[in-house]
Write a structure and sequence with these properties.
heterodimer; A: about 110 residues; mainly beta; 6-stranded mixed β-sheet; 11 strands; about 60% strand; B: about 110 residues; 7-stranded mixed β-sheet
Chain lengths: ~110, ~110
């Protein structure tokens, strides 16, 4: 049973436009969420995170929004750049249980 | 870059043979994780550790065992490798600071079971 779901396997966005990657979760005990970016043949790298006590966190071009009632979070990248082409993973964890559970990932293609 | 080293980086082994992958960290982080990445499945947690000799199962732990005798090392063992264990394996480390957590990943180990 998948606890963290990324239902879009891939997404194509024009360079300069906004990229929106979505993530849903089923376990209401999750209290911390993370986004990772992965290039081929490399390990995932941390992008941005958000605690369940917040509904928004921003870091440069990256903003994560959390809607706890809908158990949904999204990553916004604006403006999108060619180097943003990668696989993006959503992850969740809870304070009482130190597992970090990942979604299946969304492959983002930034089109010139 | 976080100090995480995975070894070996690539390995080809035969079905039925034992295989051990090593993850070494120099960050003194408490938590260590082993994930496997497969097409269509993303990153799936195999086992994790929350301290020396403290480990727990993840989502796909069958066929795998782990050991952590020192803070810096987390070993993943396939007792009898099968073709379904062909995958890319990632080690990660994390530490909780003030309620925040952030996992850092190694470069990965590509394992092929023939």
């Amino acid at each position: 049973d998948q606890q963290v779901k990324q239902n879009s396997p891939s997404l194509s966005v024009q360079e300069g436009r906004i990229s929106i990657l979505n993530c849903d979760y089923t376990n209401s005990m999750f209290d911390y969420f993370l986004w990772y970016k992965k290039y081929p043949a490399e390990g995932p790298t941390f992008l941005i995170s958000i605690s369940s006590i917040k509904d928004k966190n921003e870091d440069g071009r990256f903003t994560v929004f959390l809607n706890k009632s809908a158990k949904h979070l999204s990553l916004h990248i604006v403006p999108s750049q060619p180097g943003d082409s990668a696989v993006y993973f959503c992850a969740a964890t809870m304070n009482r249980d130190d597992k970090i559970i990942f979604g299946k990932g969304t492959r983002l293609h930034i089109l010139p | 870059d976080a100090g995480i080293t995975q070894s070996p980086r690539h390995k080809v082994t035969e079905t039925g043979t034992p295989v051990t992958l090593r993850c070494h960290q120099t960050e003194n982080h408490r938590y260590m994780y082993w994930y496997r990445q497969d097409p269509g499945h993303g990153l799936r947690l195999i086992h994790y550790s929350y301290g020396v000799k403290d480990t727990d199962q993840g989502e796909v732990s069958d066929g795998y065992s782990v050991s952590r005798s020192k803070t810096e090392d987390f070993l993943l063992t396939l007792e009898s490798a099968t073709s379904s264990q062909t995958s890319v394996y990632f080690c990660a480390i994390s530490e909780r600071t003030g309620g925040d957590t952030e996992a850092f990943f190694g470069q990965g180990t590509r394992l092929t079971v023939v």
